[in-house]
Amino acid sequence: MPHQTIFEKSRRGRTGANLPECDVPRVDAAETLGAGALRTSLPLPEVSELDVVRHFTGLSHRNYSIDAGFYPLGSCTMKYNPKVNEKTAAMPGFAGLHPLQPEETAQGALQLIYELQSMLAEICGMDATTLQPSAGAHGELLAMMMVKAYHAERGEAHRNIVVIPDAAHGTNPASAARCNFKVKGIPGNDSGRTDIAALEKALDGNVAAFMLTNPNTVGLFESDIRRICELVHSVGGLVYCDGANMNAMLGLTRPGDMGFDVMHFNLHKTFSTPHGGGGPGCGAVSVKKILEPYLPTPHVVKSVVGDQATYTLDANRPQSIGRIHSFYGAFLLAVRAYTYIRTLGARGIREVGENAVLNANYIRARLADHYEVAFDNQVCMHEVVLSATRQKVQSGVRAMDISKRLMDYGLHPPTNYFPLIVPEALMIEPTETESKQTLDHFIDVMIKIAEEAKDNPELLKTAPHNTVVSRLDETYAVKNLDLRYEPIFTATE
Amino acid sequence: MGYVSNTDTDRAEMFEAIGIESFDELLAPIPEELRFKGELNLPSALSEYGIVRLMHNLSSKNSPAEGTLSFLGAGSYDHFRPTVVSAIMSRGEFMTAYTPYQPELSQGMLQTIYEYQTMICALTGMDISNASMYDAATSLAEAALMATNILNRDEIVISASVHPNYREVVETYLRWTGYTLVTVEATSGATDVEALRTAVTDKTAAVLFQHPNFFGSLEEVQQLVDIAHGAGALAVAAVDPTSLGLLKPPGEYGVDIVVGEGQGLGSPMGYGGPLLGFFACGKKFLRSFPGRVVGATIDQQGRRGYTMTLRTREQDIRREKATSNICTNQALIALCATVYMAELGKTGLSTVADLCLQKSHYCLTKLTEIPGVRAAFPGARFVKEFVILLPDGKDATQVASSLHSQGILAGLPLAGYYPALGSGALLVCVTETKTREDIDSFASALAAALA
Amino acid sequence: MASVPSDLKYSRSHEWVRVEGDVATIGITDHAQAELGDIVYLDLPEVGRILQQDAQFGEVESVKAVSELFSPVGGEVVESNTGIADTTEVVNQDPFGGGWLIKVRIADTAELASLLDAADYEKFANEHGGH
Q: Which chains touch C (3 or more CB pairs under 8 A)?
């Protein structure tokens, strides 16, 4: 039964909100603003508050979530989002702050930002951090701007190439292109890592930066990372770490120590802020000293007089690349991430890294007989990439079919068809918060599905069977574009 | 702790299944010299009680505008948030879901985004809306870049009456992409139409303006749009969604791309984030607009369902040729806005806008009754924000500071943003949350401070 | 198995060429359309555009993939199959017939020698997989 839209539930004259009466002498809107400036109709729905609650509660029942079950999406780090983070983010002293109120009235917020900046720098082994980017891709874009500013200031504005592995997230080339860099792709090697020879060949005096995800998008640690960074530095380029996979390294190893110059974090992955069905996110960026002057404005700084610390928003940064957000980034997500890190402490942070890696390797070990593991079943970091090529050859069952069948067992699928270099990829990232019992259940279902792929491939190809809708026709969606509920725009008043 | 579920027994069993003796064997791919030794320099772990207490103490060092008598606006608003909004938003089914790449498991979130897109189209009068972007400032920058791509022109013209922070963000985006930004003065509180006419040329890809503008004033929108179109450029408007409860939708006066800040639609100010950038445009830009979008379709049984669509514009498929590098939307904040707009509905949103109109006009009247206080832009038409000038010699920052000691946030002193307005300029915002009594207290406090 | 008509020439970027007089009709192969899946959008050049051999002349899109189109021979575009803009499924259903994309007046017939014949293309497609 399709769920009606809120517009179909609308009845003329019904209303939900309980708004105050006007308690001041009235002015006439048409007279004050000019009749020509006013609208004549507003086709929003007319529903009661109970309608609103039932409508959206009903929709929530048609949605999978971490709170409801296991979410093994590779590269997404779908860990548990602690409830206490929500409690602290909702504290009126944080949620009710206006971004432009005087700094002396927001010292707690500025202190929190400052301390989170410092803690993130410590965790990744860098020198300075900004919390302004609203997403990982926003952080990448900021980093590319800083790279450009850095080279320009050294009289090397001609550096116009950014080298990126073919296996990278699509945001990497898209972010580099946004800053007018030319993207040069390089292939990986047989062990699923950067091909050093190909990198050397791509490097010259025109290279501005090399962007690398570590652990890389196949879930493997780039063991030659020191050498890679040295090579890029030797031609005057900078090295960017896409920190999408930072969860694997927490407390175990630090990008700053490897030689990276700049990286982004995804607070919504590594530091447990909720994904919210696609956002909001926070893509904090950490840099080495050489890039610190280019951080966006305003930057939160601390000054100490006697035993009195004061935190301020420093907008006077002549080398800064400029402003990238209406205000200072997603502050309420910073509150959640801060709550998380302070709850865990150094040892807790390391436990995250250890258990994320252990959980992924456990899945790898137990599924290796049933699915191909990309790049010869090596020890992986926080995620493992399986390939359904065996199933495809056997019975024409593809990664997507396996994914859809998992839904019938009440599980969310892994990431499909990424990275692009692994055919029929099923990328699994269990995260540290899942227990062995949850992993065992998932593994058992995956093994059962591998059997079904042999015995009853049609069952998979037509899956899912137990969801609120079956497989959706994406071609129909493009060919018969329907991006808004049209009847409200054509209804006669 | 780390919210880790495995016990030591679990771990021992997992080691055995993997065929290792100790965890360190899994670190083999990390060269020895890169393994972090010792402990990170972080504060010690806290119990749940401990962290709540710590955060309570830290938050108590702030004096939040909400809970104070605040007349601060300028892009972040204390509009009333009906309880139902946070009740829905805090449902784990929405809050802890991932991006709806697997539509069969994400019909709830997909449908809310479809309803959000519909409501944004209704509000703005545009054909299509994306699933939302980071904030108004970056949405405006995205609109500018989109215009340069479509028209293959490399200059953008922006009015000085656009929010100064938004202008800075647009400037950042354009500068590092290699485009030029031309700013047109707005000395009388609105875009100087003649100066705009001179600035716009056949190199101009788009004219960017805000309506109501940063000063709260309405612009001569039709003229601005006509000037842009006269040169073959796109007209881009940044709008306030609450004001659209009263104001004519930009689609009706020919705007090509409409962006805005949706925080006021049910989300807390939260020290400026997370925010909600909305982005709507005409159908002809179907293949060139940035960001995610959700469409209705059918399943194998012909039942209606929803899925992300027009995906080939996006970075994961088109990579360096994508329409934008954006890979997210503010889904949860968009949900807040959707619930808010549903709760208020056709009449509620207009009522809120009208309450802002009434109260802000009452406020201006009361404030200008104070000797020497006058409207900065006499005759300006406004919905919820306006600029006053304090008597000569009075510094708005100092006066605001003295009012703050009485628990009143008087508004935003503008000297730092528009030095030409002098040190006495104050941007005042009055939303529906202010009562007549509040406004009277503000007026008396200001009068006393100036006396 | 994808069909590979024996009377056509093929490029390594999975386009086919049918030569009639000095005009080459160009489309994408059956193999290419199968790899892409349901085609939903075509971006084709205007008539009169001069193409070099191997130059990009447009794009073909399915729901989840974009593929650039390269001209197997150089010359002037004399016709563009814009009539199928709303019925792009014809490229899936009839890639070598109604699903043709452009016609080019060949500038230099010598370029045709660098193309593959049906047997070589079939072998190439089997080895190189996707478009």
A: A, B
What residue ranges define each of the domains in chain B, with the CATH number in brackets? 69-78+346-450 (3.90.1150.10), 83-339 (3.40.640.10)
Distance CA A173, CA A185 (A): 9
What distance in Å separates residue A228's CA from the closest CA in chain B?
Answer: 13
CB contacts < 8 A, A to B, total 687
Size of interface B-C (CB pairs under 8 A): 15
Cα torsion through B51, B56, B59, B64, rounded to 10: 150
Provide the phi-psi class of A186: left if phi over 0, else alpha when psi is between -120 and 50, else beta. Answer: beta
The CATH number that applies at residue A412 is 3.90.1150.10
C64 touches chain A (CB under 8 A): yes
Tell me: cis bond preceding A419? Omega within 30 of 0 counts.
Answer: yes
Q: CA angle, B87 as apex, B86 and B91 as ends, to 5°?
A: 105
Cβ neighbours of B321 in C, within 8 Å = 66
Residues of A contacting chain C (CB within 8 angstroms): 417, 474-475, 477-479
- Same domain as A415, residue A308: no
CA distances from A22 to A25, B99, B337 (A): 8, 42, 24
* pTM, two decimal places: 0.96
Q: Which domain holds residue C85?
A: 9-121
**Cβ of C41 and A478 within 8 Å?**
yes
Query: Which residues of C fall within a CB distance of 8 Å from B318?
Result: 66
Within its chain, how far is the Cα of A478 from the centroid?
26
Mark whether A308 and A392 lie in a shared domain. Answer: no
- Choose among B97, B118, B303: nearest Cβ to A65: B97
Q: Would you tell me which residues 239-298 of chain A have a C-beta closer than 8 angstroms to some C-beta of chain B?
A: 251-254, 257-258, 272, 274-282, 296-297
Give B366's contacts (C-beta < 8 A, 6+ positions apart): B439, B440, B442, B443
Does residue A218 sit in the same domain as residue A270? Answer: yes
- For A230, the domain range is 84-344
Nearest-by-CA chain C residue for A477: C63
Residue type, position A5, single letter: T
CA of B200, closest CA in chain A: separation in Å?
24
What residues of B are in contact with residue C65 (Cβ under 8 Å)? 312, 317
pLDDT in tens, chain B (451 residues): 679 999 999 999 999 999 999 999 999 999 999 999 999 999 999 999 999 999 999 999 999 999 899 999 999 999 999 999 999 999 999 999 999 999 999 999 999 999 999 999 999 999 999 999 999 999 999 999 999 999 999 999 999 999 999 999 999 999 999 999 999 999 999 999 999 999 999 999 999 999 999 999 999 999 999 999 999 999 999 999 999 999 999 999 999 999 999 999 999 999 999 999 999 999 999 989 999 999 999 999 999 999 999 988 887 778 888 888 888 899 999 999 999 999 999 999 999 999 999 999 999 999 999 999 999 999 999 999 999 999 999 999 999 999 999 999 999 999 999 999 999 999 999 999 999 999 999 999 999 999 8
> How many structural domains compose chain C?
1
- Residues A263, A388, single domain; the answer is no
Spacing of C-alpha A57 from chain mean position: 26
In a domain, A7, yes or no: no
Nearest CA in chain C to A421: C130
